[in-house]
Amino acid sequence: MDIVILAVVIAVVVIGALGGLVVGSRRKKPLPPPPPAAPDITAPPAEPHVGDEAETPRDEPRRTIEEVDLPGGGAATGTAVEEPPVVEAPVIEIPEPTAGRLVRLRTRLSRSQNALGKGLLTLLSREHLDEDTWEEIEDTLLTADVGVQPTQELVERLRERVRVLGTRTPEELRGLLREELITLVGPDLDRTVKTEPADRKPGIVMVVGVNGTGKTTTTGKLARVLVADGRTVVLGAADTFRAAAADQLQTWGERVGAHTVRGPEAGDPASVAFDAVKEGKEMGVDVVLIDTAGRLHTKTGLMDELGKVKRVVEKHAPLDEVLLVLDATTGQNGLVQARVFAEVVDITGIVLTKLDGTAKGGIVVAVQRELGVPVKLIGLGEGADDLAPFEPAAFVDALIGD
Asked: Which of 48, 121, 170, 179 could form a cystine bridge with 54, CB 3.0-4.6 A?
């Protein structure tokens, strides 16, 4: 009986243990996921507006193109777009006529020249004209840069005429001095600037000189002189070495409606001069003015290049004028420059600038004697129309005053 009871207890324990194992394994198994709910169906997101966050577009009023703000201004409705400023063409100036220009500028010339005329008149008016007085007259003329040989000639003529006349009233002395000075300056020289060759067009004028004499400015002023006389002009900016020289010349040309031919900076000046004459012929203008680079007369290479410019230009036609620009304030030093330039190119005329300053009027006589060519133009100031044709009588009147 005890054995039966023990077997029953053991069976119950075994069945209990097996039941616990089954329940534990069931608890460890994961529950299956619940069935998925039906998703909400929505529209895909639209492209975001400029500056807006990427989100579903909101209902908003549409704007027409007229209501949309344009860049740089207000709404397009009734508002005109601002136009860029229009660059106005330069106003064409009408230069003063050249006839009588030196007479109009006489006051400016006489400011620095009266010392010569008044000094001579004072000496000649002395009661006794002894040797010391005549030496003072010579010194006055030499100080005015007249030159040794012209001074000796003038003094000899004055001495002879004063001795023969025997009378020396102020009016007679002034008339006597005026006649002799005009003779010394050379009233019979042809001072016309040759710009009208009989067999062709255009006339060709080359302007030469050393640095600092006002050569480019003189070329521009000469263009005004020619335009004032009814000529048409082309300017050749063959000064390719000096910075802004071509700009300066072009500005002068634009003022009077003259076309300017220019080349690259530091380019070949002979090429620019050649092109200027070529365009002048094609345009049918009356005159071509060629501004060359300022050259030191001591630089052989530069002077040789000036000769090359002349030869290249003459492939079109001969030069009608070669004008040498001299600073009148340099006095006798200008004569050294003039000699060397005359050896390289055939100088046909002189332009004396700055005669309104500290210049001495006698340089007119000296440079003409040195080169054997006339002074054709003189500069009497910084104004645009201060370049005047040289007139011996008006010049002498300014020297000796009223």
From this structure: 48
**201: annotated binding-site residue?**
no
Distance CA 295, CA 337 (A): 10
Q: Is 356 annotated as a binding residue?
A: yes
Note whether 322 and 343 are within 8 A (CB). no
293 carries a ligand binding annotation: yes
Under 8 Å between Cβ of 57 and 346: no
Q: Is 353 annotated as a binding residue?
A: yes
Residue 378: enclosing H or E segment and its boundaries? strand 375-379
Contact at 8 Å (CB) between 197 and 203? yes
The pLDDT confidence band at residue 21, using thresholds 50, 70 and 90, is low
Q: What is the per-residue pLDDT across 26-38, written as a single tens digit (0 to 9) for each?
A: 554 455 555 555 5
Can you give the C-alpha Rg of the chain in angstroms? 48
β-pairing, 387-389 with 375-379?
Answer: antiparallel
Q: Is 334 annotated as a binding residue?
A: no
294 is in an annotated binding site: yes
Alpha carbons 276 and 287: distance in angstroms, whole number: 10
Q: Note whether 323 and 238 are within 8 A (CB).
A: no
Give the separation between CA 158 and CA 402, rounded to whole angstroms: 20
